[in-house]
Structure to design on (232 residues):
């Protein structure tokens, strides 16, 4: 079974600074997808970024980028130029690429606080 | 548009009541999911429907009964719940086709359930 670990329960960052949230996972599969989701206090879970394991290039979405290290099974999220609206719980998630295996395995989350 | 809607936003029910949660998406997605989320915890998968057929039941108690009347709609019928069932219930959907975009899940805002 796959597991996802987020070792930082809470993080804080000054507005406009850069912060990195860590995520490690354990799997015996070679093909899979990794996701970062954001859940603000208003509670809707929003997709931040997605990475395919077979792609060596790190995914980026505007101020959000990942550092995907497949051999190390590491998938960290970097947020540049942090904004107040980035304050949220961030969940790292793993999904097998086996079609029909729809289960999304989540980490325990990192609560990010933005300091004005 | 990646919108999943859920009604009601809040629900309070007694242990003898019968109620239903509703989830709707109009993105043509063919896979839909129910999750339960306790405070400060990641979502836990309950059920998956793929092409209107139940494909995953994560050993959920029978007091939770899912229904997928059509490809756009997902219901969760509740009966004889316990206070420990109080939680945020999230619905999600995905295209249901192979590939990273096809298997990305999009979440609704959730229904906050309180069982008295």
């Amino acid at each position: 079974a796959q597991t996802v670990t987020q070792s930082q329960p809470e993080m804080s960052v000054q507005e406009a600074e850069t912060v990195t949230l860590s995520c490690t996972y354990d799997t015996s599969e070679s093909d899979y997808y990794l996701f970062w989701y954001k859940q603000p206090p208003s509670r809707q879970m929003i997709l931040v970024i997605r990475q395919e394991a077979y792609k060596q290039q790190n995914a980026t979405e505007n101020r959000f980028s990942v550092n995907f290290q497949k051999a190390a099974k590491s998938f960290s999220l970097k947020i540049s130029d942090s904004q107040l609206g980035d304050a949220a719980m961030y969940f790292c998630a793993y999904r097998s690429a086996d079609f029909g295996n729809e289960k999304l395995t989540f980490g325990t989350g990192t609560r990010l606080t933005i300091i004005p | 548009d990646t919108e999943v809607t859920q009604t009601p936003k809040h629900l309070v029910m007694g242990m003898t009541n019968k109620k239903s949660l509703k989830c709707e998406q109009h993105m043509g997605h063919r896979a839909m999911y129910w999750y339960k989320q306790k405070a400060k915890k990641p979502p836990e998968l309950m059920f998956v429907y793929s092409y209107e057929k139940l494909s995953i039941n994560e050993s959920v108690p029978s007091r939770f009964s899912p229904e997928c009347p059509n490809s756009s709609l997902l219901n969760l019928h509740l009966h004889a719940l316990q206070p420990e069932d109080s939680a945020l219930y999230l619905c999600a959907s995905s295209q249901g086709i192979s590939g990273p975009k096809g298997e990305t899940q999009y979440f609704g805002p959730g229904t906050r359930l309180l069982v008295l």
